[in-house]
Predict the structure of PAS domain-containing protein.
Amino acid sequence: MPLQIRNDDASFEVLFHNNPNPMWIVEVDTLRFKEVNEAAIKHYGYSRNEFLNNIILSDIRPPYERPEMLTLIKRIKHNQTIKHDLTHVKKDGTNIFVHITSYTVDYYGSFCRMVIIHDITEQKLKDIKLTEAVNKIKETLESITDGFITLDNKLRVTYWNKEAARILSISQDTVLHKTLWEL
Protein backbone atom coordinates (compact mmCIF):
# COMPACT_ATOMS: atom_id res chain seq x y z
CA MET A 1 0.00 0.00 0.00
CA PRO A 2 1.51 3.36 -0.97
CA LEU A 3 2.12 6.13 1.50
CA GLN A 4 -0.95 8.39 1.63
CA ILE A 5 -0.45 12.14 1.89
CA ARG A 6 -3.39 14.31 2.96
CA ASN A 7 -4.04 17.92 4.04
CA ASP A 8 -3.71 17.25 7.74
CA ASP A 9 -0.37 15.43 7.53
CA ALA A 10 1.91 17.75 9.53
CA SER A 11 4.78 15.25 9.59
CA PHE A 12 4.86 15.25 5.78
CA GLU A 13 5.04 19.03 5.74
CA VAL A 14 8.03 19.03 8.08
CA LEU A 15 9.89 16.09 6.52
CA PHE A 16 9.29 17.13 2.91
CA HIS A 17 9.48 20.91 2.91
CA ASN A 18 12.32 21.16 5.45
CA ASN A 19 14.41 18.39 3.94
CA PRO A 20 17.87 19.65 2.89
CA ASN A 21 17.82 17.34 -0.15
CA PRO A 22 15.88 18.28 -3.26
CA MET A 23 12.56 16.42 -3.31
CA TRP A 24 9.45 16.41 -5.42
CA ILE A 25 6.26 14.54 -6.01
CA VAL A 26 5.42 13.71 -9.63
CA GLU A 27 2.13 12.36 -10.96
CA VAL A 28 2.98 9.14 -12.80
CA ASP A 29 0.42 9.47 -15.62
CA THR A 30 1.14 13.09 -16.57
CA LEU A 31 4.75 13.51 -15.33
CA ARG A 32 3.60 16.81 -13.79
CA PHE A 33 5.20 18.05 -10.60
CA LYS A 34 2.55 18.04 -7.87
CA GLU A 35 4.83 19.30 -5.08
CA VAL A 36 8.43 20.47 -4.79
CA ASN A 37 10.52 21.47 -1.79
CA GLU A 38 12.68 24.56 -1.33
CA ALA A 39 15.92 22.60 -1.75
CA ALA A 40 14.82 21.52 -5.26
CA ILE A 41 13.87 25.10 -6.14
CA LYS A 42 17.30 26.37 -5.09
CA HIS A 43 19.24 23.50 -6.65
CA TYR A 44 17.52 23.38 -10.04
CA GLY A 45 16.88 27.11 -10.49
CA TYR A 46 13.18 26.86 -11.32
CA SER A 47 10.63 28.79 -9.29
CA ARG A 48 7.91 26.88 -7.47
CA ASN A 49 5.42 28.15 -10.06
CA GLU A 50 7.61 26.94 -12.95
CA PHE A 51 7.93 23.48 -11.40
CA LEU A 52 4.21 23.14 -10.75
CA ASN A 53 2.83 24.81 -13.89
CA ASN A 54 5.40 25.09 -16.69
CA ILE A 55 7.58 21.98 -16.79
CA ILE A 56 7.18 18.22 -16.51
CA LEU A 57 9.60 15.55 -15.34
CA SER A 58 11.01 14.88 -18.81
CA ASP A 59 12.04 18.56 -19.09
CA ILE A 60 14.76 18.03 -16.46
CA ARG A 61 16.25 15.09 -18.33
CA PRO A 62 18.61 15.35 -21.32
CA PRO A 63 16.79 14.52 -24.56
CA TYR A 64 18.87 11.36 -25.10
CA GLU A 65 17.71 9.93 -21.72
CA ARG A 66 13.99 10.64 -22.06
CA PRO A 67 13.05 7.32 -23.73
CA GLU A 68 14.86 5.42 -20.94
CA MET A 69 12.98 7.49 -18.35
CA LEU A 70 9.62 6.64 -19.91
CA THR A 71 10.52 2.94 -20.03
CA LEU A 72 11.57 3.02 -16.36
CA ILE A 73 8.33 4.71 -15.33
CA LYS A 74 6.26 2.11 -17.20
CA ARG A 75 8.13 -0.75 -15.45
CA ILE A 76 7.63 0.59 -11.92
CA LYS A 77 5.48 -1.63 -9.76
CA HIS A 78 3.12 0.11 -7.38
CA ASN A 79 5.08 -0.43 -4.18
CA GLN A 80 8.52 -0.65 -5.72
CA THR A 81 11.28 1.58 -4.41
CA ILE A 82 13.54 2.74 -7.22
CA LYS A 83 17.17 3.74 -6.73
CA HIS A 84 18.90 4.92 -9.86
CA ASP A 85 21.73 7.13 -11.09
CA LEU A 86 20.54 9.65 -13.67
CA THR A 87 21.48 12.84 -15.44
CA HIS A 88 19.32 15.90 -14.76
CA VAL A 89 19.36 19.29 -16.42
CA LYS A 90 19.07 22.48 -14.39
CA LYS A 91 17.15 25.50 -15.65
CA ASP A 92 20.41 27.12 -16.84
CA GLY A 93 21.17 24.04 -18.98
CA THR A 94 23.84 22.58 -16.69
CA ASN A 95 23.87 18.79 -16.61
CA ILE A 96 24.23 17.24 -13.16
CA PHE A 97 24.60 13.64 -12.08
CA VAL A 98 22.13 12.54 -9.44
CA HIS A 99 21.19 9.48 -7.44
CA ILE A 100 17.45 9.28 -6.92
CA THR A 101 15.33 7.24 -4.57
CA SER A 102 11.68 7.09 -5.59
CA TYR A 103 8.67 5.85 -3.62
CA THR A 104 5.04 5.35 -4.58
CA VAL A 105 2.68 7.77 -2.84
CA ASP A 106 -1.01 8.51 -2.95
CA TYR A 107 -0.93 12.29 -3.10
CA TYR A 108 -4.44 13.64 -2.51
CA GLY A 109 -5.86 10.70 -4.48
CA SER A 110 -3.34 10.82 -7.37
CA PHE A 111 -0.92 7.98 -8.14
CA CYS A 112 2.48 9.66 -7.72
CA ARG A 113 6.14 9.10 -7.02
CA MET A 114 7.95 10.97 -4.27
CA VAL A 115 11.59 11.42 -5.28
CA ILE A 116 14.59 12.28 -3.13
CA ILE A 117 17.55 13.58 -5.12
CA HIS A 118 21.23 13.45 -4.15
CA ASP A 119 23.57 15.41 -6.40
CA ILE A 120 26.59 13.17 -7.08
CA THR A 121 28.13 15.39 -9.76
CA GLU A 122 31.29 16.18 -7.82
CA GLN A 123 31.98 12.52 -7.01
CA LYS A 124 31.13 11.41 -10.57
CA LEU A 125 33.54 13.98 -12.05
CA LYS A 126 36.27 12.81 -9.64
CA ASP A 127 35.62 9.20 -10.67
CA ILE A 128 35.87 10.15 -14.35
CA LYS A 129 39.18 11.96 -13.79
CA LEU A 130 40.54 9.02 -11.81
CA THR A 131 39.54 6.56 -14.53
CA GLU A 132 41.16 8.78 -17.16
CA ALA A 133 44.37 8.97 -15.10
CA VAL A 134 44.48 5.19 -14.58
CA ASN A 135 43.88 4.62 -18.29
CA LYS A 136 46.67 7.06 -19.18
CA ILE A 137 49.08 5.26 -16.83
CA LYS A 138 48.11 1.87 -18.31
CA GLU A 139 48.53 3.23 -21.82
CA THR A 140 51.99 4.55 -20.92
CA LEU A 141 53.05 1.29 -19.25
CA GLU A 142 51.84 -0.75 -22.20
CA SER A 143 53.71 1.45 -24.67
CA ILE A 144 57.16 1.12 -23.09
CA THR A 145 59.60 -1.38 -24.57
CA ASP A 146 60.74 -2.76 -21.21
CA GLY A 147 58.97 -5.37 -19.17
CA PHE A 148 57.20 -3.69 -16.27
CA ILE A 149 55.80 -5.45 -13.20
CA THR A 150 54.28 -4.08 -10.00
CA LEU A 151 53.87 -5.94 -6.73
CA ASP A 152 51.84 -5.24 -3.63
CA ASN A 153 53.23 -5.41 -0.07
CA LYS A 154 52.68 -9.20 -0.02
CA LEU A 155 54.67 -9.58 -3.24
CA ARG A 156 51.61 -10.41 -5.34
CA VAL A 157 51.70 -9.28 -8.95
CA THR A 158 49.32 -6.34 -9.44
CA TYR A 159 50.46 -5.30 -12.91
CA TRP A 160 52.26 -7.11 -15.73
CA ASN A 161 52.61 -5.27 -19.00
CA LYS A 162 52.54 -6.92 -22.43
CA GLU A 163 56.31 -6.56 -22.83
CA ALA A 164 56.87 -8.46 -19.55
CA ALA A 165 54.55 -11.14 -20.88
CA ARG A 166 56.52 -11.30 -24.15
CA ILE A 167 59.98 -11.34 -22.53
CA LEU A 168 59.09 -13.93 -19.87
CA SER A 169 56.61 -15.89 -22.02
CA ILE A 170 53.98 -15.77 -19.28
CA SER A 171 50.61 -14.15 -19.94
CA GLN A 172 49.23 -11.42 -17.72
CA ASP A 173 46.18 -13.57 -16.86
CA THR A 174 48.46 -16.31 -15.58
CA VAL A 175 50.41 -14.13 -13.14
CA LEU A 176 48.04 -11.47 -11.81
CA HIS A 177 47.41 -11.74 -8.06
CA LYS A 178 50.00 -14.52 -7.64
CA THR A 179 53.11 -14.15 -5.53
CA LEU A 180 56.52 -14.18 -7.14
CA TRP A 181 57.33 -17.65 -5.81
CA GLU A 182 54.11 -19.05 -7.32
CA LEU A 183 55.35 -18.20 -10.80
In short: The helical segments are 10-17, 38-44, 48-54, 66-75, 121-143, 162-168, 172-175. The longest strand covers residues 95-107. The chain has a mean pLDDT of 90.
